[in-house]
Amino acid sequence: EKERIEQLQLQQEFDVLKEKVNPHFLFNSFNTLSSLITEDKNQAEKFLDELSKVYRYLLRNNESEMSTVEEEARFIRSYARLLQTRYGDGFRLDIQIDPSYLDKEIPSLSLQLLVENAVKHNIISKQQPVTVLISSTPPGYLTVVNNLRRKAKSSVDSTGIGLANIREKYRLLHRHDLVVEETKDQFKVTIPVLT
């Protein structure tokens, strides 16, 4: 019974973390949409269309804590189109995931949060775009790497949830092998995939 109570408590903690993701995503998306409305109404319409597609996935996915790597990769491609509507050539995404990883699982929206952080915390320009590479690495990890050109801290309006949320989800899954590495030019997060 003690074990059952502990599992229920872990499930409740996981659910609380999951609920924080959607407001985090909406907060950043509405900030982007707000700036687009004043800059370019046609782009704002395209952005809103992509946002509705992405949010549909978020609503469907809200029921499960875990998603397959294939589902998350498909979603992140849609999310990238949303970012490209906003930033044009200032954002690039490359996905190189070995097919053997596609049926493995990761906590839902982990890739989205990592890509969102890359965009949110870096200066984006056509001359020096933010480039994100998502790849699989043996023996059972995904890496998300982006180049670094950090914004000034005061210019980033942050809710502080992204990376901490992912760390906490893995902690609840009893996995402590998430690795964050930062150099002068690069930010890299390595997350384990689960079978």
Description of the molecule:
There is one protein chain. With 195 residues, this protein is of the alpha+beta class. It has five helices and seven strands. The strands form two sheets. A five-stranded mixed β-sheet has the order 2-4-5-7-6, with helices on one face. It has a two-stranded antiparallel ribbon with strand order 1-3. A hairpin with a 3-residue loop joins β4 and β5. α1 packs antiparallel against α2 and α3 packs parallel to α4. It starts with a helix and ends with a strand. The mean pLDDT is 85.
What would you report as the Rg, rounded to the nearest angstrom? 17 Å
Strand content: 15-25%
Helix content: 40-55%
Structural class: alpha+beta
The total count of strands amounts to 7
**Strand order across the largest sheet:** 2-4-5-7-6
How many helix segments? 5
Largest β sheet strand count, sense and barrel closure = 5 strands, mixed
Low-confidence stretches are: none
Anisotropy-based shape: globular
In sequence order, what are the helices and strands, one letter per element? HHEHEEHEEHEE
Average pLDDT figure: 85
Q: Kindly, what is the distance between the CA atoms of the first and last residues, rounded to a whole number of angstroms?
A: 27 Å
